[in-house]
Amino acid sequence: MPAVSPNAPYRLVRRDWGFLGEFRAMASPCELLIASHDEDIAYDMLDMAAREARRIEQKYSRFIEGNYLWRLNHADGKRQLIDEETWQLLAFAKQCFELSDGLFDISACPLMQVWRFTQDAKMPTKADIEAARALVGFARIEFNSQELLMPQGMQLDVGGIAKEYAVDRVAYELAESYAGISVLVNFGGDIACPVANAVPWQVGIEDPNQLDHAAKVLAITQGALATSGDTRRFIEVEGKRYGHIVDPRTGYPVSGAPRSVTVLGPNCVTAGMLATMAMLQGEQAEAFLSEQSVQFSIFR
Q1: Which residues are CB-neighbours of 291 under 8 A, at least 6 positions away?
Q2: DSSP tag of 10
Q3: Which of 138, 166, 171, 264 has the most CB within a 10 Å radius?
Q4: CA 163 to CA 89: how far, in whole Å?
Q5: H or E element at residue 47
Q6: Backbone angles phi, psi at 55, to 5 degrees
Q7: What is the DSSP letter of 76?
Q8: This prediction's pTM
């Protein structure tokens, strides 16, 4: 029978190879595949993973009013103190911005606020898009290991890196705390496996044109993969599909982007960075990834 925490919606199910742990965080189904038959250890690992994932969500979700990111986003042009974790995320975001020639920009939050990819969403007006685009530009942000200064009206959306960061944090904390136990961490399709497993984990890659159908199965013993795509976040206006990957230079969703991109990498943040960058390349996604010397899968 599944073991369930009385205080949190965790679910732990015994399997032939160990335990499957499940919970929900960051608007995604989250799971751990734990290669251990010790139920107490498996539950402790699941509890640790859920706590850390929810901590990161509570701190960095742009949808939670009053949280850490909300306070940074509503500083009204005033200099703010930041902690080391935030500094590290900003440093990585700067690297993404520079490597993508400004395409990967976490300051694009104002654009994401005018583009709503829900069932009842409408096409934003050109005036709204231009007003939001005027507030975007990571190069205008000043920060160091202790302080952050953003122009008034600019806001950050770290959704493009936070889930992958959470996957890596959880995976490596579990590997350090439970040495020798292989675990596969899967948060909504972003995956990390820091400790090699004797028997490879089988990971299905979803075909966005046939949902709930694994078009490919990858055998992973160690490493990470991340997926970026518009399978569930898009709108259709007058027969034209607009995916949720927005080009900050134009203010509009990327034209010619693949339906999904999956990249294998040494860790989840690197794989996620490359997957999102590939989406932002539009028609040139395949060519871009071919130059990166990584394994990848693309659906159009």
Answers
A1: none
A2: -
A3: 166
A4: 12
A5: helix 39-60
A6: -60, -45
A7: T
A8: 0.91
